[in-house]
Each structure stands twice: as C-alpha cells, then as structure tokens.
Amino acid sequence: MRFYSIVTAITLLLTACSNGTQEWEPKIIAHAAGGIDGDIYTNSLEALTNSIEAGYKYIEFDLLFTADSVLVATHSWEEYNTLCGQPQKGDSAPTLSAFLSQRIMGKYTPLTAQQINSIFESDSTLFLVTDKTSSPDIIKEYFPNIKERTIVEAFSYEDYTELNRQGYHKVLYSCLAHDITEGIVKHIILHHFFKGEKIEWLSLHTSAFDHHLFKLIDIFSHYKAALFTVNDKEIVPQKHRKNIEYIYTDNIIP
Questions:
Q1: pLDDT at 221
Q2: pTM here?
C-alpha cells in the first residue's frame, strides 16, 4: 500500500510540474500595432483597430519624426517608403502632409503620435508600448496623460533611469541601447559596486539568449523581460520563461 502511495505522490508531483510549465502566460503585446490580414509592421489605424477588437490590451508603435519634426508611427523610413510604393526614396523622411497622404500597402492609414494618444486616452483599458524613441521630453510631450499606461523601451541607461523617475508604467532597457554592455555589466551583474539605479527590466530579441552578456546575467543576477518577436510561444526555452513577462507578437491572440 505504501508503495502505491509513493507512486501516486510522485505522479501528482510530476503532473503539477508539467502543468506549471504549461501555465506560462506572458502578457501579449501587439507588435507595430499588430498584424492585419497577414500584413505586419504597418503601424496603421486599421491594425490598431483590429488589435483592439481582437482583445489586445498592450499595443506597440514605432515612433519617428517626419522631415518637419512631427512624431508619427513607422518602423523605419526606408520600410515606409517601400510599403508606399516609393522605394527610390530610400530612408528619407517625408513631411507630415506627405506622410498622411500615402496609404501603406495601398490600403492602410498612417497614424501620428497625436492620433495614437487620443485613442489611448479615450480607452483606459489600453497600454501603449513605444519603440525607436525614448527621450523623456518627447514621450512626455506627445503622451502627457497616459504615463501610468505607457511602457517605454529605453535606448540608454540615462533615459531608463529618468523615465522610471517620472513614473511610467514600465521602462524596458533595450538590448539595442548604445550603452548596452556597460549598462548590463554595471547595473545588473555588478550593480552593488556602482552608483545608479539597478536595471530591473529588459527588452530582448529572441537571439539574446545565446549572447554571452545574457548568459552572465543568468548566472550572476536576475531580470525581467519583454521578448520580441514571438509568433510561437514554444520557441521560448523553458528555463527562460520565468523571466519573460511580456512577448511582442504579430499573430498570437491574447
């Protein structure tokens, strides 16, 4: 009888462990406003509307300035010009009027930061996730009233600490930051030996797990992260899932 009790206990334990790994449910971020009809990276009004209707609460936009210094949503000017049928323009930025006059892929409506802010202000259930631009002054200017629902990807340790000081919902220190090596060594791995705020949150590309810096973090420290771009949750190694609380996606429905 005791033997069977032990077997039953072990079975229940293994089942619980198995269920535990299956219960990994990161928060889902609609990447570049989300996919729509198989199209991605549009940062468009239609993609935003589609993502809201699909139930996404975290929606990311890439933010760049037009030639006349207005913040708008686009992944890159080279990509925007190509998607609008003007590849010969390369990475040159259009004026605001030219930007708004185009249709992305011939059918999608471009968005300004002001328009995005208006939509997010009117729906208190939505969280804005920003990319490409992390200047605290710019983020504050264009998104003044949704600080508590804005997640900013910061491209320098200086931006990371200032945005945290200002009280944004979450600030992610980008793996594409120009000071990434210094930031990770000083403010994650060897934080106790340096002045300054410890980095708690990272935005990571899926390739980062093979990088020596992130292998060192796993050994010496602790972090939480948002991972891009994940269109199949099974690609995320089990051992890293405890650290990944957000994933950017083109197609995983929340």
A1: 84
A2: 0.89
